[in-house]
């Protein structure tokens, strides 16, 4: 037996081929890199500059944006204008409502004033008639009883003498009589000139206008529009007046038979009455 047979070997174990090759490759790569770096020398690498291109706003987009801004501004202006118009309309409506209420109040006040004036005028008219009768009686130089008796006598004679003339009235006088009799029953309204409401002088004026005679509008002037005639010598178509000639406060038309037609007052309207109902002061003849 050899004296070395049991001595362990000090040789390094053989490495496997793949590992050796891998190490050789890595080392070779490192050396190659070092070699390249050495060859390049100390030169420094230049910085890399990259340009980024930003999108630009095209002309069409700019126009669209501008139009949108203009439209927004127009809408805002329209809203402001509408608000102003609404406020103005509200103010106008309030003013109109207030004005209407004021007009109604004034109209009611005017109606009340007119009604009071009519009542006052009617009272004055009644008082004036009473005074005129008293004055007429005093002027005749008779007492109240004698005056009444005298008037009854002339009224009776006038009635008897004119009853036939009433039925025989012709021409313009007959037309005047027909006109006033056709209005009997119409309302009395101060200042009324027809066709369905009258005051005393308005009725007389319209009756004579129907036959082409143009009389003054008021009773004072109508009482002097023709020839003065006696109450005992009346003819149909004569104008009767109450008060003095030129200052009369009432007129009517004598229709014969001792009767007259006149617009008396708001209580009676247009009536046909005997002379004794309201004795006149005088008469004038136009026809």
Structural write-up:
This protein has six helices and eight strands, in the order H-H-H-H-E-E-H-H-E-E-E-E-E-E. With about 290 residues, it is α+β, with helices and mostly antiparallel strands. The protein has a domain at about 140-285: endopeptidase fold (from Nostoc punctiforme) (Alpha-Beta Complex), CATH 3.90.1720.10. The protein has a six-stranded antiparallel beta sheet with strand order 3-8-4-5-6-7, with helices on both faces. A two-stranded parallel ribbon has the order 1-2. Helix 4 packs across helix 5 (about 200-210). It starts with 16 loop residues before the first helix and ends with a strand.
């Amino acid at each position: 037996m050899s004296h070395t047979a049991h001595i362990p070997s000090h040789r390094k174990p053989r490495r496997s081929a793949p590992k050796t090759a891998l190490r050789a490759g890595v080392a070779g790569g490192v050396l190659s890199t070092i070699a390249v770096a050495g060859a390049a020398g100390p030169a420094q690498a230049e910085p890399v500059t990259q340009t980024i291109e930003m999108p630009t706003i095209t002309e069409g987009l700019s126009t669209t944006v501008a139009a949108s801004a203009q439209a927004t501004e127009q809408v805002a202006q329209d809203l402001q204008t509408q608000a102003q118009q609404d406020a103005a309309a509200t103010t106008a409506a309030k003013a109109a409502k207030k004005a209407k209420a004021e007009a109604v109040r004034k109209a009611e006040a005017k109606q009340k004033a007119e009604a009071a004036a009519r009542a006052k005028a009617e009272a004055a008219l009644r008082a004036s008639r009473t005074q005129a009768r008293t004055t007429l009686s005093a002027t005749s130089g008779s007492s109240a009883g004698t005056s009444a008796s005298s008037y009854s006598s002339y009224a009776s004679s006038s009635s008897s003498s004119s009853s036939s003339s009433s039925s025989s009235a012709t021409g313009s006088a007959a037309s005047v009589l027909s006109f006033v009799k056709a209005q009997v029953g119409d309302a009395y309204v101060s200042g009324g000139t027809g066709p369905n409401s009258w005051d005393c002088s308005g009725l007389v004026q319209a009756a004579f206008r129907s036959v082409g005679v143009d009389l003054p509008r008021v009773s004072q002037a109508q009482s002097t529009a023709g020839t003065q005639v006696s109450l005992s010598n009346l003819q149909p178509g004569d104008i009767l007046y109450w008060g003095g000639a030129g200052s009369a406060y009432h007129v009517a038309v004598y229709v014969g038979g001792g009767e007259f037609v006149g617009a008396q007052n708001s209580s009676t309207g247009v009536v046909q009455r005997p002379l004794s109902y309201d004795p006149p002061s005088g008469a004038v003849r136009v026809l």
